Input
Amino acid sequence: MLTEGDVIHRVITFFEKNGYKIVDQKNTSQQGYDIVAEKEGKRTYIEAKGQTSSKPHSNRYGKEFTSNQKWDHVSKAVYTAMKTLKKEGNCDAGIALPADDVHMRLINDIYPSLQALKIEVYLVHESGIVQMYSP
Output
């Protein structure tokens, strides 16, 4: 299972391989955008979520989040991306999620709206592969 930290690390690697410079990154205990990357003068802000807690002292550590928790995480990530587009102006905003069945279903249900809002979705596979979502 991927933690939020795993998702962040893999998306950063993906961005770097695709010519982005990482301007800022957070760990799971820090506030703010999880990833800020820049390419050709344009910034991309990413909100990441995991499948399990990355905090050893939490009740969910090592246990997969429930469908309801994943729904909550996706909702918050989309809200953050929408808020980012308003606050930061000329930028790209996206969310990064594990590529499991629940996250895929949740994203598929709202994908036309995400496209209309120009919110990018990055799916992170257990194997380390990161892909932009496209149904």
In short: The CA atoms of residues 16 and 39 lie 10 Å apart.
